[in-house]
Structures are given as C-alpha cells and as structure tokens.
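In full, the data.
>
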Amino acid sequence: MNDWWTRSLHLAYFMLPAYCANMAPPFLRYWHGWNRPIHDRLLGSHKTVLGFLAGVATGVLVTGLQYRVHASWSLVNYQHWLLLGLGLGGGAMLGDALKSLIKRMLHINPGASWIPFDQLDFVAGALALTGAYAGLGPTDMATIAAMTFVGDIAVNQLSYRLNIKDNPW
C-alpha cells in the first residue's frame, strides 16, 4: 500500500504542470485588455487566445521549476524540460479545447456540466503528448485519472466559492 501512495505522489508531481496549466486561464477574467476568443462558433467565447497561451506558459514555467528542483525520484529526466512543459501545458490546453469542440458538436451548452469529461479533458491531452515519454502504463494512467477526477472537483468547487470561476465544474 505504501508503494501505491509513493507512486501516486510521483505521478501527481509529474502532472503538476498540466494541473497548473488547467488552472491558469480562469485567472484571466481579471485581465481587461485584449483577449479574443480562439473561435467563438467552434469553441465558445470563453476559450480565448490569452487563456490558451497562459495555460501553455504556466505548464512550461512549472516544468522549468521542476527542472531546477531536480528531484532524484522524479519519473522523468527534466533535461528536456522545455519540450516536456510544452507537452504538458499545450496538451492540457488542447485537451480542453477539443472537449469544448465536442460539446459544441453535441449541442451541450457552454458552461454546462459534462462529467467526467470536464474533469479529465486536460489530463487526456497532456498524457497523449507526454505519457509515452514518461513511460506510464495503464495503472499509472488510471491512478492519474482517479486522482484528477477527485482533485478537479475539489479545486473547481473552491474556485467557484472564491468567485474565480462562474460555475462549480
């Protein structure tokens, strides 16, 4: 059991850039400058260029910090931290955008809850771009999905209560 907890912590540390990337765009609601939608009709007005870029930049920044920390127990070698950060941050943003596109195609209203896709979209994108590099297996991916599902619900509830997000999902 102890090995499972240790592995889970290592997986969470690996995914930290994607988690932070996913949390970055809602903070741009406080930015009153230019921030146009990526494609209003396909993704909705809430998916913006700056939000996407902030997510990618946050993923790169956090991965850069992980490289500087140089934890000996890390799952990956952070020597190529920039590419890893682009994969985790960019993958998180691409996963979120793809989910929004699918919601539009299925005529699900923007902002409407769509469990479990709202919780796992960014993780699927990040893992699609970096999972093989990290050598993650099916058990690792299931562990990440379970941790993320619970954690995302908790973070979104907190963000909603702090008026950072407009809805609790």
Q: What stands out?
A: The chain is about 65% helix and 0% strand. The CA atoms of residues 94 and 125 lie 6 Å apart.
